[in-house]
Amino acid sequence: MNQFLTSIPTLLSSKLSIFIYLFLFFYLVVFAVLTMWIPLLKNAQPSANVQLILGNYTNVLSALGASLAAGSGTLIHHSLTTLHKKHDTMHDELQKTITELHEKIDRLEQRNQGKDAQKIHDDSNK
């Protein structure tokens, strides 16, 4: 059930869903208004039963708005998730590089201290 509910935004924002909502909007709203103004189209006007079956204007517009909002929300969530994963990966790599750098610096300091001690020893023997 949870998997189905999480897939709803994706289904609502699919191209097919948006096409259906746009078709219904144009057929029930735009075309219906045109048939009222243009007498030649009067016979092609959607009947009351067709309007009832396919939904009213408010539902069509609401569904279209919900689809677009769900799609953009899903896209933003996916982008943020991807960005967080990249950030975590880069942070881990940076921490590893910093640790390696500190180890190299420590080795160089130990070498320099050894050389300085050797130089002092050589100078005192002369």
TrEMBL record:
The keyword Transmembrane applies. Keywords: Coiled coil, Membrane, Transmembrane, Transmembrane helix. Residues 91-118 form a coiled coil. The chain crosses the membrane at residues 18-40, 60-80. The keyword Transmembrane helix applies. It comes from Enterococcus rotai. This is Uncharacterized protein.
